[in-house]
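Splicing factor 3B subunit 3, Magallana gigas. Tokens?
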Amino acid sequence: YQIAQLGDDDEEPRFSSASQLEEGEPHFFSPRPLKNLVQVDEMDSLSPITHCQIADLANEDTPQLYTLCGRGPRSTLRVLRHGLEVSEMAVSELPGNPNAVWTVKKNIDDEFDAYIIVSFVNATLVLSIGETVEEVTDSGFLGTTPTLSCSQLGDDALVQIYPDGIRHIRSDKRVNEWKTPGKKSIVKCAVNQRQVVIALTGGELVYFEMDPTGQLNEYTERKEMSSEVVCMALGRVPVGEQRCRFLAVGLSDNTVRIISLDPSDCLSPLSMQALPEPSESLCIVEMGGTEAKEETGEPGTVGGLFLNIGLQNGVLLRTVLDNVTGDLSDTRTRYLGVRPVKLFRISMQGSEAVLAMSSRSWLSYTYQNRFHLTPLSYETLEYASGFASEQCPEGIVAISTNTLRILALEKLGAVFNQVSHPLQHTPRKFVIHPETNNLIVIETEYNAYTEATKMERKQQMAEEMVEMVSAEEREMAAEMAANFLNEERSESIFGAPKAGPGMWASIIRIINPISGNTLEKIQLEQNESVHSIALLKFASRGDDQFVLVGVARDLVLNPRSLTGGFLYLYQLEDGGESLKLLHKTPVEDVPGAIASFQGRVLIGVGRYLRIYDIGKKKMLRKCENKSIPNYVSAIHTVGNRIIASDVQDSFHFVRYKRQENQLIVFADDTNPRWITASCSLDYNTVAGADKFGNITIIRLPGDVSDDVDEDPTGNKALWDRGLLNGASQKADVMMNFHLGEMVTSLQKATLIPGGSESLVYTTLSGGIGMLVAFTSHEDHDFFQHLEMYMRTEHPPLCGRDHLSFRSYYYPVKNVIDGDLCEMFNSMDPVKQKSVSEELDRTPSEVSKKLEDIRTRYAF
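Tokens:
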């Protein structure tokens, strides 16, 4: 916020915590909008996240994260997508489907672009940029031919390259033409402010450079390439120099060659790189430099030159181009999409960036000294160019099918963009209906009224207002009461009225996560709290889908008491858009966890684990196990095995024996853990997170058998039974790691198309993180050593020991702290060099290794 005025001149009443109030005497004031403060900026926070699921419900190839956030009336359902937020400035239809677009300035000193040039299959359209964008015919451009490229040349001239020649348009509208010889035509070209290079059919390169008078001069020799040219690129002319010294040429024999444009060895080859696939486009940019700062007098630093290569199979390569010798080194690869990658150079925050277009558009840019390659959350684009105008100083003009779009990117550096849909109470959990992709969300709020009770209370208070006053003031009181009833204050700003302990309000809602429309909202009665939900099919009811909801009545959390629990069974109707209540089943405790199991349903009722089946009037209990100590908080099923997590006693592995109709605990964990989130990884392995911020993975050893018999005869030795201290077999701890914040959801998911699976967690304070498995010993060894050196070379700011922090409750085991390893890129170069020498690598190899493992699984 910015302080606009000090608020000492208004007539508002003042309240101070120092002034004594009589018992029960409140202060009255009426709220108003902000006057003295002006909001300048806000950052989105996800805190608190209560539940999250990862799924691709919008059919976008890349999955979205659906998170339930917030508390009370301010809670929301947020859809997070990996990508930059794009603001659409303008969209206009074109007379046909264009194949390219460029923007040019009239003069080198102009701040804004003057023309947008759009090329079609057989024509070129020139639009002038002013208050509006309209077609012009006197620009000097040839309109009857398609354009291959155009650019501003020198200080105030323009150049247009088309298949039959080059058209050089001077500022006084004089035109010089250069025609192609004989039957040849121009296939590819590359231009910057002082140079033009064209490739004729047959792989012949012709080079032009501008002389001091502003004429384009052809270099005397021409260069024959060994095969057809498929793409070319020139960098920008560096400040204070005459020319860009390198030309990159992609040939049809799957190579990229760097050719010198220096007068001493013009058009001689410098270096070459072989590619796995033919290249589609090239782009040379200077990245990583910083601008000179006027306030502090810091000089700007020069960035490195990078050659970006877009391949036809949808892969982008980024290679370092040595700005002295022209050698190519340190190639990074990234898969972008299914279509060939086209590259465009644009400017972002004063430095160069690359827009890469495949089936999704990506932006490669540097932000806060780090390289980012982030997709744009927008539909597929085909061609683009940078765009600068008064309304939009750093925009992009792009074409998609038959439309011309002007876009702007604002929140650079963000990993996700989010769309949020408001909810009414604190959301607890949701399930996804697979056929319609709708979400069924349960929301429950402690110390709150339901809508019906709220209206009753309001009515009652209004009546009391009238009754309390004497007969003379009745009229005024009646008016006040009417105002009170009609007044609608937004609860998301003012908060909801507090109802008192033991009062609960709950909602079950079906919401479409893409549009945010609520399709059905069921209000439960006052003092009913919803704790669990599952989507089920029963063996006896064919393909009908049901939603089972676990509800507690009059629950008081401490000391714990309740008058009873219920299981509400709803049937999904209208293709998954509405719910019909079939019946309620009373149970004696809180139904804390529900899971579908072999055509029936497993329910954790308090500390009892039970199997129920559907009946006509209520759910029928079929089997139960009483050996879980406190409260079943979650249930996972794998085949005949059931993994039940206890609220303060870790995991219990249960086997269901169909013949005897018994649930038998055959193994459990040796450590007490207060499990808040869990996820089954495979038949023997489960990941869990506890209330104190630890994540752990537990695996059953290979010799554990789940054919354990309860001992019917009683002739086993006492210590073999393992009854008092849990099961007779114990699980092994595979890994422990202390995160430092409470985890609210764990899920095994693939975050990028073609990537590997990882374990994604969300935390109460709004963090999203992931654990990835190493696939090779070599990688593991490398990162283990890097972490070891980082611990000594880069201790935390507050002087805490990193190892003891990560082992806060249990010794850290089999986990390498990726956040610590990532700090390598922000260390000072001398330390980077010393650490990488210890690892027998160069600093760029270490940061490449860090980037590789990150982009293999995530962003």
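The longest strand covers residues 564-573.
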